[in-house]
Amino acid sequence: MKIDMPFEHSETVDLALDTIKKDKQALIFVNTKNSAEKQAEDISKQIKNIDLEELSYEILNVLPTPTKQCKRLADCIKRGIAFHHSGLNSKQRELIEDNFRTGAIKIICCTPTLAAGLDLPAFRAIIKDLKRFTSRGMQFIPVLEYLQMAGRAGRPKFDSVGEAICIAKSDSNNEEIYEKYIMGEPEDIYSKLAAEPVLRTYVLSLIASELVGSKKELMEFFEKTFFAHQYEDMAQLNSLVMRVVGMLKDWEFISVESADSETSDFTSADFFGEETYKATLLGKRISELYLDPYTASKLIDGLKNNKDKVEFSYLHLISNTLEMRPLLSVTKAESEDIEEKLELSREYILDDEDFFEDYYTFMSSIKTAFFLEEWINEKDEDFLLTKFKVRPGEIKYKTNIADWLLYSCHELAKLLMLKEQLSSIVKVRLRLQYGVKEELLPLVKIKGIGKVRARKLFNNNIKDVRGLKKVDISSLKRIVGEKMGVNIKKQLLMG
DNA sequence: GGACGGTGAAACTTCAGGTTGCCTC
DNA sequence: GAAGTTTCACCGTCC
Question: Is residue A187 situated within a structural domain?
Fold first, then answer.
């Protein structure tokens, strides 16, 4: 283990080139997706004698139309260099990981993704950034995370040693890194229960699963948790938990009964009375859905709202939750656009409390909903990357959460007897899954037909199963290809 | 004269990751 | 707070 002083310039590129010269591989850890891409690009420009034409081509074409990100990645890959972060398409990630294992790819510039989950060791782990942006400005990352990254150095089967290299930006930075990371101890682990959304979800699930049925049992449970161990102040923990119980009761997710109603005044704050808890039907379902009760209450209010509802209503309702965060932020240049969008949709927005409370967040939720709307109107990945700066991997992630929330809306609407909304929610959900307009839904139900083929068929005037049955096989083959044509016809015969 | 291209400084943005639900032939 | 990207003014060149 050693710390390098800065070279004249671009020490990271030099280290990467040196690694390749030694016929070894390296992982370079940086703190943002953009930096990962830029770093990979900078290194790849210095490489002359590697040419992975085929792999580069494969990586470029994982989507129907390549995005700028795909092109950038493909250019790097050609030279044996990759960038890797959560914004990549999953197929691309897989290709990079596999080809790093085989040794074809020499260097991966990555965000911490690669440190935790994946088993991708390399001769060198180069840790370029030890600070990361947080709500309190730039902060050193935890020692534990540093160890995760440094731990990628050395491949047990191939190398007898590994090198973990930190890049210091100055002499004083060098000192800091040495003290904090090389000599320092990992910090204590903190319970995540303390965050209120987690506490809310947890309390409801304890009651819904009948693990606890009374105030006494609830408090006993929390006293035994790691959280209480760290919290120490039991009185405060008590009041925090009781506040959550109060909220759950107000939202009618649990029912509370007092054995002795005379003593259950506010005077009994720290009296473990015989208050008993039971989850309502609604509360049970919310717990099963793993929803934060606060989110659930917001969704319920929205669904009950009497306003006319269009797709955007639902998309905004789910965009305005904690689960969808971080939301897409609104830039100066586009703020007028988003305001205009808001004006157009204002009458269909079910939850506009934040318009007055927290305007900036509200506008972000509008932009996020707008992004989802573009997606269900068949805008492709490159368009969304350019317009919203949302990368393919992030589209997948966001739409997946949105899908879960829409499913939750559907389940809630069912319990609330809001039957008239069910079919529109199902429709939005399906459109979100496939990224298609409503007119393609009948086609997309068939196996092997996604947004691209469905659009092609539709434009050839084949609009549903009936149309597919009517069209002759040769025309069908012409539209969707030889194999797919046969496949579809087969399915129609069986179904 | 004007279209084009290159350059650099200033202004502007953005900042890691990824569990939960249900379903499928 | 820092790195990366975009924008814009400025200058020189070529047709």
Answer: no
Task: For residue A340, tell me if it sits in a domain.
Answer: yes
Whether nucleic acid strand C comes within 7 Å of the CB of A38, the answer is yes
**Which residue's alpha carbon is at the shortest distance from the C1' of B24?**
A447
Q: Which residues contact A333 (CB under 8 A, 6 or more apart)?
A: none
Residue A372 one-letter amino acid: L
Span CA (A35) to C1' (C7), Å: 21
User: Which residues 318-347 in chain A have a CB closer than 7 A to strand C?
Assistant: 333
Q: Exposed (0-12), middle (13-18) or buried (19+): which is A70, by Cβ within 10 Å?
A: buried
CA of A90 to C1' of B9 (A): 39
> In A156-180, which positions are buried (b, 16+ CB within 10 angstroms) versus exposed (e)?
eeebeebbbbbbbeeeebbebbeeb
0.85 surpassed by pTM: yes
Residue ranges, chain A, pLDDT below 70: 1-9, 232, 259-273, 495
**Domain total of chain A:** 4
Distances A136 to A139, A143, A328, A345 between C-alpha atoms, Å: 7, 18, 20, 35
Q: Are A49 and A353 a contacting pair, CB within 8 Å?
A: no
Q: Output the pLDDT for position A6.
A: 36
Chain A residues 324-363, Cβ below 7 A from strand B: 326, 329, 331-333
CA A41 to chain centre: 25
The residues near A12 (Cβ < 8 Å, ≥ 6 apart) are A28, A39, A42, A43, A126, A128, A167
Note the maximum CA span of chain A.
85
Q: What are phi and psi of A341, to 5 degrees?
A: -60, -40
What span, in angstroms and rounded, lies between the C-alpha atoms of A259 and A273?
A: 8
For residue A407, what pLDDT is reported? 96
Q: List, for residues A11-25, the tens digit of each pLDDT value.
A: 899 999 999 999 999
Question: Residue A480 belongs to what domain range?
Answer: 444-494
As a whole number of angstroms, the distance between CA A131 and CA A12 comes to 16
Domain boundary among A288, A315, A332: A288
